[in-house]
Amino acid sequence: MPLKAFRGPKVWLWRWRRNPLRRRADVVEAWVVLAAWLLTVLVGVLAGLTAARSVEHGLARERAAWHPAVAHVVAKAPGSATSAGGGERVWAEVRWTVADGSAHTGQARVAPGSKAGTPVTVWTDPQGHLVTRPTTASEATFRATLIGGLVGASAAAVPFIGGLVLRGRLERRRMNHWDAEWARLGPQWGRMTG
Fold it and tell me: What does the radius of gyration of the chain's CA atoms come to, in whole angstroms?
């Protein structure tokens, strides 16, 4: 005999319907599952959107504030110009002047064998310090989407796992109640059939 025939037809949302066999624990479990799913979706979406917006705004501020500057190599860079094939770069000391006229020095990647005085483009923040090239708008959107998705999924895991833990505790409690009832009523069944 198939198991489905033994159990009867599956009734959707049976914990929510009036039923003489419905226990209080069934109703509590139904509310716990509903709350856990709602919180999982809500927390995941809100955390993901907040993180994505924050990343995108931060990268937009960098694009607006960071500017290219022309720096000059201070001393001959290591390596030779012939080994520069393939876009290889080496670190060298460079010097640049910012808008207020102050000179700055720092390390930047240049072509191997670059001579002193060779111009190279560097990116600086408003204070004139070296920074990396800011992300483009499409790179920023991709990065914000990726980070927002990861943060959203991580944040959604908290209420989801909390719901699973709470549901497991309710299940153990229900099993303990059944064990207690069986210990009380089980011996009476033996007398009735014997």
Answer: 34
Higher pLDDT, 27 or 145: 145
Question: Where is average pLDDT lowest: 26-40, 80-94, 135-149?
Answer: 80-94
**Alpha carbon distance 131, 82 (integer Å):** 28
| Other Cβ atoms within 10 Å of 150 Cβ, number | 12
CA distance 187 to 83: 91
Beta bridge partners of 107: 93
Query: pTM for the complete prediction?
Result: 0.70
Element housing 122 (H / E): strand 119-124
CA distance 180 to 24: 17
H-assigned helices in the chain: 3-7, 24-65, 137-193
What is the 8-class DSSP label of residue 84?
G
177: Cβ contacts below 8 Å, ≥ 6 apart: 25
Phi, psi of 7 (to 5 degrees): -80, -25
Cα separations in angstroms, 60 against 42, 124, 145, 151: 27, 15, 14, 20
Which of 18-27, 49-58, 121-130 ranks highest by mean pLDDT? Answer: 49-58
Beta strands at 103-110 and 90-97: parallel, antiparallel or unpaired: antiparallel
* Mean pLDDT score, 17-23: 72
